[in-house]
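Entry for the shared binder. Reason: the reviewer on the internal report wants the predicted structure included alongside the sequence.
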Amino acid sequence: MPDPADERFAAELRGSGFRLRRWRSDDLEALLRHADDAEVERGLSDRFPHPYTRADGEAFLAGRVVDLRNPVFAIEVHGEACGGIGVRPLEGERRIGAELGYWIGRRHWGHGLMTRVVGMFAPWAMEELALERLQATVLDSNPASARVLEKNGFVEEGLLRRAVTKHGHVHDLRMFAMVRQRLS
């Protein structure tokens, strides 16, 4: 877990029917309940395994999977963590940007929840990190995730052809981005 003294990303964001907050060690059981689902894992990177074991959840909550010092939040609905959203700042000459990632448990699909979450989180992250660019890649087999991004002002910039393998199949990646608007 991040150092409790690091308050930079200690924000809590509240939206319609959800709260975004830092992950906590007591989220383990809820994390396992929502993450151990092959349908959830199907659209995500291999950092998100299936089956999702207790060891996987413990490693995530300890910060060994993603850097939890970054803005990486639990999506809480009705007092339970049921998904996650976060950004990974890019480095070097790309340090003006970050990569967005998110997931939600299947029981919350189809209700517009992730659209509302991304709609609140993306502008907040752009401002908080002073980003010029926030990007996200989506597997060609995950049109629902692409719609979430498009509904929130992300523009599809291109296709990374035959870019990844998932479960033994080669996939294209769709690249989306939101960029800071320049005032002239």
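Summary line for the report: Residues 113-128 form the longest helix (16 residues).
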